[in-house]
Fold this protein.
Amino acid sequence: MQKEMLTVLPLPFYFAMGNLKAMTILELNHIAIYVTDVKRSSEFYREVLQLEPIPRPAFNFPGAWFRLGSNQELHLIADHGGPLFPSHDRNHFALRADDIEAWEHHLERMGADFATRKQRPDGAWQVFLRDPDGHVIELFTPPAGAGAKT
């Protein structure tokens, strides 16, 4: 019996043959993180990070959704299977903030677990903090005159 061979052609060949159309990722829609206690985590994201709660579909597991900026969302998910495993301590998501010094004072008043702000080599300022489950969040302000890049 002869095995069928799979031939992989270079991507430009597919485009030239009209087999594929150009595709584009439009934007980041949401970040989903697993939490152990939706109520506790929701309170943290609502009060400490001042995120706006938004409606969530009626899934068959607990969770909460929050607005991130104008078009992105944060999805908290709990009791959705196996245990919560800690992620690598360098994994994080970054949120552009308006006034890093004011945020640092707010985090201190709220008793949040955070590191003192530091400046990146490009001039951006960062504050890293942890949510109740240990997920790392970066608050940052871009370098003077720069856009929203992290």
Summary: The chain has two domains: 28-81, 88-150.
